[in-house]
Design goal:
Elements: E1 12-16, H1 21-30, E2 35-40, H2 43-56, E3 62-65, E4 78-83, H3 97-100, E5 103-108
Parallel strand pairs: 1-2, 1-4, 2-3, 4-5
Amino acid sequence: MLHAAHLQPGARVLEIGSGGYNAALIAEVVGPHGAVASIDINPGVIAHARAVLDTAGYPQVQVETADAMAGWPGAAPYDAIIVTVEASDLPPASSPRPVFSSRRSGCAA
């Protein structure tokens, strides 16, 4: 999935659906001049992700409890938005328009 996103060093990336591992991989790709924000609606998932990232040495990854349908404008705009949450977690016929409006023009989603 990360390969398909064509991430580059210095990119700003929003990950929807946190756990820590994928955010750490993204942080490795974007490097010290990039930014990674990872959101999840479940505070327990976010607490776990923060602990995993801190233990693994990725304190620069921002993790926040947030609804994917609203996105995370605090770190926008993004060069890529990567959705790792289960589709069954999203309401039927939903479209996270606010999330995708925070992408830079022409960026990967």
